[in-house]
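HOLO CASE FILE
Compound: arginine
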Amino acid sequence: MKLWGGRFTKPTNQLVEEFNASILFDKELVEEDIQGSLAHVAMLGKCGILPKEDVEQISAGLKKILARVRRGEVQFSIEHEDIHMNIEKLLMDEIGSVGGKLHTGRSRNDQVALDMHLYIRRQTMELVRLLLQLQEVLLMQAEQQIDTILPGYTHLQRAQPVRFSHHLLAYASMFERDIERLVDSYKRVNTCPLGAGAIAGTTFPIDRRYVAEKLGFDRIYDNSMDAVSDRDYLVEFLSISSLIMTHLSRLSEELILWSSEEFQYIELDDAFCTGSSMMPQKKNPDIPELIRGKTGRVCGHLVSLLMTLKALPLTYNKDMQEDKEGVFDTVKTLTGSLELMAEILKTMKVNQKRMKQNVEQGFANATDLADYLVNKGIPFRKAHEIVGKLVLYCLKQEKFLLDCSLEEFQSFAPEIEQDIYDHLDPISVVEARKSEGGTAKEQVQKTLTKKKVKLAQFSDWLTSKMNKEASVNI
Ligand code: ARG
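Model generated. Tokens follow.
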């Protein structure tokens, strides 16, 4: 007999049973579901809706079930559809009909919303933790590689030389924004929907704020209809996750390129690469490739949820059950990707020599020659043209700017003097970019310091939220 079987005269069709059930995936929420029920029943007792003895029996029963779940002893069944009814059924098996009082003043609609809020709150903190871990590795490498210079690229063509630290810190900036987004979304995630009932609230004299406080929520939904139909926080979570994956995919792509024989800028550690079953010489960057590939599915989950929610009338509709698998898969994909990316960056070897070679064997200092001419009073547009012609000349002669004699330089622009050789040296070129946020050493160091301060602030935020979570003791 179903928990809702009263008004039914026939058993459920077997195909419906399977199609309708969510237990195969929402069992992921078992801890949250029991935690929420414990808070709910405590509130029912406190408000005098259930007698103390019932509350004690129900709480003890729920705790027993939780212990059994943790020991891996519990079998969930499709017959009881979802995690909420499976737990209720297990409770009644455990303590008898008094277990049927747990659902007083509550609906699965506010219950599932509660579970998902608790789940996303926990995962938001976990993602912040993993991002901070990644950030630490990026900052460590940036500090170590402060004197490593490589060509910076636009259009994947050598553009201007930059410090490798500067390049890495660009990623640190992206991940810093990602952390900021998660921290900001936490406010909205940490809002308690319980007490909304199925749609309109409940006739019982419940205390929503008591439950909210017990579960560590900062506030409650102020509209019961919104409470059961809001999935914005999931869209937001998937959207932030998609952006994190997108950032990881760009970094992955660079690692793949840089570790290729064509670039040889870095070497990935053997422990994080794989071989080919046929070609004995191969060492493949599978992990960055997989991260790059998995970005597609995470972005797909975002679009999928948006499409599910589009034009859904208020309030709860079963369509919303479709919110879970994508979210769970996103969490799994993202935590794995972040953890591995930190390890890969920590263990990679940087080939400074090769990077330097590529800076020297190119025209990455061409802008600097143009700027030099500007400083001699030549309008930039004219200077651009002169250097363009000089580059063309060098290409024909198969040489680089620094290989030209002073006479050759002067035949293009008589203003050029002996000091041009120092001026076009890669280090001078990099050091000349002292504008705020530029690649000169003092600027890169400044950014590094700022990022460290931010990292410490985010760490403090995380510690305070984790302490809060730990104090939720039900
Ligand atoms: N399994 C459902 C879900 O994930 C739980 C809520 C069901 N509510 C209902 N009225 N059928 O959305």
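CASE NOTES: The radius of gyration is 30 Å. Residues 35 and 357 are 60 Å apart (CA to CA).
CLOSED: yes
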